[in-house]
Write a structure and sequence with these properties.
alpha/beta, GMP Synthetase, Chain A, domain 3, eight-stranded mixed sheet, four-stranded antiparallel sheet, globular, binds zinc ion
């Protein structure tokens, strides 16, 4: 974290709460100005209209957009222009207007020289800059034009809010990774109200079962209508609600984001909050997105990006960010894309993501060569073991450590049950159970269900 940010946060935490609200709100008004404009409602209406297009109509539309974007990238963006220049000099005459002629890129290429990905008619000083920390902790620099941001937030408004009968005028809670409260604070508020976005930003770092009552009180006080949350943090809150018998405020929906949502978490949210839970998929690079409808289908947003599945990895071409085009960008996420066959019961014909199974880097390697997704963690929770949080760490092919935050009922039998769950799914591996107070979080407060520490090249 840069020093200036540390100093700023140190000052922020010392302010009385009403001044923290003023600072957060000022920031919120600035974001609102950047994200929404007079064209927003028109863009939202157009997006909702596209939801029911036939697959043929989508195909034509995305092909036109893609060809236009690829032409722009090959002629106006230094990184790609250079690449195509070299190919042409080698006598390669393939068309750059066809996606299959482009090689995949990953975030290392962007990190090496982010400016090379900016179109030459864009001035980064007039764009919104964002640095993503990424799961592996290496920052990536991104830029968006104001037009890009407006287009993106119109899609978000349509498919995350309007699909669920909500609008950006409704008060909402966001349980996520910004450090809005002193990490050392032992008393609430663990949140800050942002008037500009009508958003109660709740710290994920303080989301423990014991603090659940405080969080519920804050939601009630701010008349929060719906919640967006990291599943791992909301799971801690849900456990507190169920354990202490709290009555949470009536929410219209819970939207989960940023981490893989496991079934055991979804069940806990439905039980604790008695409201629908909808998952979503997206990324700061805004080149792929999907949201779950009321019928449990994860619908892709073809107008955000063209998503391909290459060796189990989602590879995406963003259609919105013409200022910094990412072509066949390796997302690092494991998933499956389904043909847009018949329409979903919700009436939308959008293609679907049939599975999202965490980060490619979080794969467990079984001794017999199988590659297992983080879904393995479900075994521990499906068995209703007395565990608050768990994480699987693989140090070698034949040894797995399970970090657990045990509840009072945890005993030697629990350890044996976890061990047998792991062995049943992975094979003959040595299982070590490690007790911790809290599973360590990565950058942005996100939790990984599986951490692979296998030496490079052993996969
Ligand atoms: Zn649907």
């Amino acid at each position: 974290m840069p020093l200036t940010r540390n100093i700023w946060l140190g000052t922020f935490y010392k302010l009385p709460y009403h001044l923290r609200v003023a600072a957060a709100s000022l920031h919120g008004y600035r974001l609102r100005y950047r994200r929404y404009g007079p064209e927003t409602e028109r863009l939202v209406a157009e997006c909702l209209e596209r939801d029911t297009w036939t697959s043929g109509r989508w195909k034509n539309w995305t092909e036109d957009r893609t060809a236009e974007l690829l032409h722009r990238a090959a002629t106006r963006v230094p990184y790609y222009r250079e690449q195509w220049g070299q190919r042409r000099r080698r006598g390669d005459s393939s068309s750059w207007e066809r996606l299959e002629n482009w090689p995949a890129i990953d975030r290392v290429a962007i990190r090496r020289n982010p400016h090379a990905f900016l179109a030459d008619d864009c001035d980064p000083r007039r764009m919104t800059a964002e640095v993503t920390s990424g799961t592996m902790g290496s920052p990536t620099q991104l830029w968006y034009s104001s037009q890009t941001l407006t287009a993106w937030y119109a899609l978000f408004e349509a498919r995350c809010r309007r699909w669920n009968g909500l609008s950006r005028g409704d008060a909402w809670g966001l349980l996520a990774g910004q450090a809005v409260a002193d990490p050392l604070a032992r008393r609430p508020p663990y949140w800050v109200w942002n008037r500009g976005l009508r958003q109660l930003y709740l710290s994920c770092y303080h989301a423990t079962p014991d603090n659940a009552g405080h969080y519920m009180e804050a939601l009630r006080q701010h008349d929060v209508q719906y919640l967006m949350a990291y599943p791992s943090s909301l799971y801690s809150i849900a456990q507190g609600i169920l354990r202490h018998g709290f009555k949470p405020p009536r929410l219209k929906v819970i939207l989960t984001q940023s981490e893989q949502l496991f079934d055991f978490q979804r069940r806990a949210f439905e039980e604790a909050f008695e409201c629908p839970v909808r998952d979503s998929y997206g990324m700061s690079e805004i080149c792929a997105a999907a949201a779950e409808c009321g019928h449990g289908t994860m619908h892709l947003w073809p107008d955000a990006g063209v998503v391909e599945e290459v060796d189990g990895e989602l590879v995406s071409t963003g259609l919105i960010n013409g200022g910094m085009p990412l072509i066949r960008y390796r997302t690092g996420d494991r998933g499956k894309v389904a043909e847009s066959g018949g329409a979903c019961a919700c009436g939308r014909s959008l293609p679907t993501l049939t599975a999202i199974e965490g980060r490619i880097s979080d794969t467990i390697h079984a001794p017999d060569g199988r590659k297992l997704s983080p879904n393995l963690i479900e075994g521990i929770f499906d068995a209703q073991l007395p565990v608050e949080e768990a994480q699987i760490v693989q140090y070698s092919r034949d040894a797995i450590t399970v970090r657990v935050v045990p509840t009072a009922a945890f005993n030697a039998r629990t350890s044996r049950a976890i061990e047998s769950e792991i062995v049943r799914r992975v094979g003959r591996v040595a299982v070590t159970i490690e007790h911790v107070e809290r599973i360590p979080r990565g950058p942005n407060g996100k939790m990984r269900a599986v951490v692979s520490q296998l030496p490079a090249g052993s996969s």
